[in-house]
C-alpha cells in the first residue's frame, strides 16, 4: 500500500487509526496532542488517565470516541537536544511501535503527524527522513495505507532541502515563454486568402482539373490495406515495456510496485491488461522505481500517452530530479508536495 502526504487536520481523517504525538503524561497538551483530545472529547482523557503515562519511543492504544477513526495510538517523541542523546533512535522507535501496534489490531490504514517536529524541536527535514524511512521499511512486509499529515513548508526550508530547484523552475518556465515568443515571431506571413471557390475545393464551370485524383473506389481498398499494415506494426505497450524493465532490473514485481508507491491491486490491473493506460503520476512512479534514464522515462511516458512539458510545474520538478539521477521517490514527492503538485504513485 502507498505512503501518502497530505495537508490538513489529522482529526478529520477516517483512517483506522491516527497517531497522537503525545507527552509523557498522555493527559493532553498543545499542538496535535491538544487538537486530538479536544476532538475526541473527555472520554479520551479518562481512558488515558488509566494508562500510567508513556515513555519516549513507546506507544499505547486507546479508543477514538468522537473522532472518525477506530483507534488513537499515542506515542512520545524525543525532545531535540542537539542530536547527541539518542533522539533519532527514539524517534524511529515511535514509528515502529505505532505501526506494529496498528498491525496487531488489524488496521488497514493509519495517519501520522510529523512526530517531534513541533514544540519538541526536532529539525523538520531530519524528522521527515526518519518518518519516511521507517514507514517504508515497515511497508516492505506489510499492506497498510499510511498517511503523513504535514504542514506546508516554508519556502526557505524548501530551498535548503532542494537547493537550486526554485531557480530551475523559474528558468525553465521563462525559457518556455521566450521559446514560444520566438516561435511566434518567426512564423512565415499568412498567405493571402484563396478565392472562395478554391477554399471550398470547387472549380468554375468548364475549368479542367490538373491534379491527379484517386477515385473513392480506388482509395478505399488502399486505405484499408495501409491501415492493416500499420496495425501489424503496433509498438510495445506501456504494460509490456514496464514488465520487461522489471525483469531486466532483477526486481520482483512486489519490490517494484512497493518502491514505486503503487497499490498491489493497481499493479495487478496493469499486469493483466497489456493495453492498460495508467495516470501520468503512476507511470512516472515506475520510472523512478526502476531508475530509468531520462530518455527511457520519456519513452515509458510516451507509451502511456504522455510527455514532459516545460509549461508544467509538475513536469519541470520531475525533470529536475531526473537530470540529477535522484531517484528517491520520497524526496521527489516532498518537493512536489511543497509546490502543491500531484504526487507520484497511487493515491
Describe what this molecule looks like in 3D.
The model is unreliable at about 175-185 and about 195-215 (pLDDT under 50). This protein has 2 domains: about 5-150, Leucine Aminopeptidase, subunit E, domain 1, CATH 3.40.220.10; about 165-175 and about 235-340, no CATH class. It is an alpha/beta fold and about 350 residues long. The protein has helices at about 30-40, 40-50, 85-105, 125-140, 155-160, 165-185, 195-200, 215-230, 240-250, 255-260, 265-270, 280-290, 295-305, 315-325, 330-340; strands at about 5, 15-20, 60-65, 70-75, 110-115, 145-150. The longest helix has 21 residues, at about 165-185. The chain is built from 15 helices and 6 strands.
Structural descriptors:
single chain; 347 residues; alpha/beta; Leucine Aminopeptidase, subunit E, domain 1; 2 domains; 15 helices
Helix and strand topology:
Layout: E1 3-6, E2 17-22, H1 31-40, H2 42-48, E3 59-63, E4 71-76, H3 87-104, E5 109-113, H4 124-139, E6 145-149, H5 155-161, H6 165-185, H7 196-199, H8 216-232, H9 238-249, H10 253-259, H11 264-272, H12 280-289, H13 294-303, H14 313-323, H15 329-338
Parallel strand pairs: 1-6, 2-4, 2-5, 5-6
Antiparallel strand pairs: 3-4
Helix pairs in contact: 3-4, 6-14, 12-13
